[in-house]
Amino acid sequence: MDQMKNALIPEGTAKPAQKAPRIYKTTALSRLILAASLALCLLLVNAATWPWGMGNTVTVFAWYALLLPAMGREALLRRRESRVLLAYNLLLAASFALTSNPWFRLWNFLALVLLVPIHTASLAFGDLLPWWRPAMVGERLGLLCRGAFCHLGAAPAAISAGREKKSLSLSVVLGAAAALALVSALLPVLASADALFAAATQGLVEFIRLHFARELWKLFWALALTPFLFGLLYCLRHVPVQTKARTLYTVDSALFAIILGALDVLYLLFLAVQSAGLFGGPEYLAQRGISYADWARNGFFQMVGVTILNLAAVMASLTFSQQESRGWRAVQGLSAALVGESLILLASAAWRMTLYVSAYGLSFKRFMTYWGMVMMALFLLSALEKTRRPDRSFCRRALPLALAGWLAINCIPVDYLVAEKKNGRG
Question: What is the reported pTM?
Answer without folding.
Answer: 0.73
